[in-house]
Amino acid sequence: MRDARKIISSIEQLPPFPQVALKVMEMVQDEDISFRELAKVIQLDQSMTANLLKICNSPFFGLRRKVSSVQEALVYLGQKYFMEVIMEMASAGYFREGQRGYDLAKGELWRHSVACALASQLLEKEIGLQESSLLFTTALLHDIGKVVLSEFVAEALEDIRRRVDEGASFLEAEEEVLGVDHAALGGMIAERWSFPEEMVRTIRLHHRPEEDWEGLTPLVYLADILCLQMGIGTGVDGLQYRAKDEVLRRFGLGDRDLMGVMVELEARLEQAEAMINLN
Ligand SMILES: [Fe+2]
Ligand SMILES: [Fe+2]
What we know:
- The protein is mostly helical.
- The chain has a domain at 4-12 and 96-276: Hypothetical protein af1432, CATH 1.10.3210.
- The protein is built from 16 helices and no strands.
- Helix 5 (70-77) packs across helix 6 and helix 7 packs across helix 14.
- The protein is globular and about 60 Å long.
- The N and C termini lie far apart (42 Å).
- The structure holds fe (ii) ion (2 copies).
């Protein structure tokens, strides 16, 4: 086994999660938050404000009158959509490179992440669960561990492959060969960024839904599988592309429901891409 400590200490090199986005995440958990207060926080970050206005004023939205303040942007987008844009802006930087260890070309893991975030919301609605303000961001960052682990996976790919040939899953092989898998590492990153406990847990357990039935984990797990089934962010790790039956049973979902979600996801993803690429 390689030195897991070296891998774990390398997460310190990741830039901290933008403070403003953290604050917004904390604020929206409180139901009585006003647009004015939210706008005030975003305004503290100049580049985020500039990008937000740029997105709102892009041809994608085709507004006749220019949006010129954060508060206007909030009113225009609505709190939910606004949050999505902010979290995407805060997270995109981490996914700029490709992840060669996972055979993911530049942009693929980002696309997978956005798709997973959108899918998790569609599933939440389909199942009729109460909306969670943390779900989108948690799903968006579920594979953040891959960003750091990728280089170490690339170095040890031969050993990992051998373990997979012997019958281990890629995730198990990561753990066995490197001493830590991307989910556990992602959990550590989330902890370092002071994310709420529920987000840390979900990121850590996103391949093991049976360990967190009450939390967001099964939703993110299922959203991840749907994206992989659709070929979005399918890399070298060959994770199971079929959801565990127990998850589907608990949610009361059948193949037809999942197909419906996939169709909707395709449209939502196209829309999101048109919007984010402008940035
Ligand atoms: Fe994963
Ligand atoms: Fe994933």
